[in-house]
Amino acid sequence: MLHDRLTSLDAIMFGHLAPLLKAPLTNSALQTHLKACRNLVSFCHRISTEYFPLSAEGTSCVTVARTFTEQANQQLIYVDKTRSALGTSDKSVPTARDEQNHASPQ
User: Fold this and answer.
1) pLDDT, tens only, 12-26
2) CB count, 10 Å around CB of 18?
3) Tally of CA atoms within 13 A in the half-sphere of 98 that contains its CB
């Protein structure tokens, strides 16, 4: 934010950086690097506090992102257990194990 007003470039940059800085990631190397860039952290903090303050329920956008991630993981675990119980080998439906293997660095 070079001026008092948010520009479209600011919005684009925030849209890409904020999730990388705040969301829980399986591999934190990029997040660690970005957090070391104080100007980017400061930039995202200014926009977050000005445009995305805590809601009336006290839920921040980060809390919503974490809740969404946890629910998605629970659904993958349920699919995995169901697939295992049915003895199906339908690989078109990802399992929690598939997701963890995909996210792990090789």
Assistant:
1) 888 889 888 888 888
2) 20
3) 15
